[in-house]
Amino acid sequence: MNKIAIICVDDDPAILSSLEMEIKTIFGNSYLIELAENGDDAIELCTELLAESIEIALVISDYIMPKMTGDKLLTHIHKLSPKTVKIMLTGQANIDSIGQAIRYANLYRYISKPWKTDDFRLTVKEAVNSYLLELKINEHADKLEKTNISLIKLNQDKNEFLGIAAHDLKNPLSAIKGWAEMIVEDYDDMPKSEVIEISNLILNSSRQMFELIRNLLDVNAIESGNMNSELSKVDILPTVEDVIRHHSERAKIKNIILQFHQKNNQYNAFVDKNTVHQILDNLISNAVKYSPYGKHIDICICKSEKMICCEIKDEGQGLSELDQKKLFKKFTRLTPKPTGHEHSNGLGLFIVKKLVEAMHGNVWCKSEIGKGTSFFVEFPLFNSQVI
Ligand SMILES: Nc1ncnc2c1ncn2[C@@H]1O[C@H](COP(=O)(O)OP(=O)(O)OP(=O)(O)O)[C@@H](O)[C@H]1O
Ligand SMILES: [Mg+2]
User: Is any atom of ligand 1 closer than 6 Å to the C-beta of 204?
Assistant: First the structure.
């Protein structure tokens, strides 16, 4: 931080040097002491100091000076630097001029000339202390203001989050309610096959709600810093195969061919096994969810010097540049819509990104409208882990 300045203004050089000595006696070399012999010089000095970002704690000005009186000068300085504390020295106490200075320059005190040393020193010390106190109060007020702004933003986010979550839970819940009412009211006249069909609808909707709640809990854990990832040496090949197996049934229904390409028998990464599962599950389920019927999805795994990379490549409708910019944000449902009535909460990729980052990995996407989308996810190779 720059030194803080104290300025003394008097047209009598002898008084100026005794003011300087007094201030040096009180504060030693802690402050930059500047002197001016008239109002114009004092204003120029203040302007220069402020331009150099040097704060002015105190201006002590004589009242009677040629051209510009002390009250006018202090009023001017007050406009330039409202925080600066101002003291006026008066030969004879002129009530009007002191009144003006108090009103327009926020005068702190006036000191009669000749001053008593003890009184003078005490007043100057108190004036500088009051400046420093004000500085601290302003700093705290700034911090409070910033905290307040971020709290308001957090509260808005939370409200938006709750609004979307409540809305997304309401739809499947009201469907469940309607179907359950149908069974309760018409059970006697319903064939067993219809009861099973409706029960399956109930089951699907409750799965949808369950998944949303699981995602919301994940988001909450991520945002409150309670995510538990235990990194260790993991061969991720079986995990990739497991996730692919898990999604092949759904892909088959859509006549989509899932193909896996790998060169090695082992891909040892420094990761958390369950988290890798969750990440790949999200990316592969998206590829199946957003691919039209009858297309191919290729999943490749490869090693580089420091990372293991998985690519999930689909032949879906692709994402525009604008959509790509919005990817990985909370509650982002973009232009591509599920092709087989799957549900979509817009949380999967947000969670994926946070989980990948927590394991010091990377995730990104390349996409071309009409051609398809590739999601890439990289995990640190075991041995090259970032600690
Ligand atoms: N492979 C893909 N091809 C085309 N669009 C995609 C693909 N993956 C994601 N998207 C687009 O990105 C949006 C966000 O995906 P994200 O996985 O975050 O949410 P979601 O799939 O809508 O819901 P969920 O929370 O159930 O995952 C999707 O709504 C979709 O529009
Ligand atoms: Mg998804």
Answer: no
198 lies in some domain = yes
- Residue 332 Cβ inside 6 Å of ligand 1? The answer reads yes
Give the Å distance between the CA of 289 and the centre of ligand 1. 8
Candidates 53, 50, 49, 72; CA nearest to 61 is 72
pTM for the complete prediction? Answer: 0.66
- Tens digit of each residue's pLDDT (9 = 90 or more) over 333-380: 999 999 999 989 898 999 999 999 999 999 999 999 999 999 999 999
According to DSSP, residue 188 is labeled G
Whether 333 and 259 map to the same domain: the answer is yes
Residue 269 lies in a domain: yes
* CATH code, 63: 3.40.50.2300
Yes or no: say if 383 and 267 are a contact pair by the CB < 8 Å rule. Answer: no
- Please, is 92 exposed, middle or buried when counting C-beta atoms within 10 Å of its C-beta (0-12, 13-18, 19+)? exposed
- For residue 178, the tally of other CB atoms under 10 A from its CB is 13
Tell me which H or E stretch contains 8.
strand 4-9
Per the structure, the complete domain to which residue 179 belongs is given by: 156-218
Task: Please tell me if the CB atom of residue 320 comes closer than 6 angstroms to any atom of ligand 1.
Answer: no
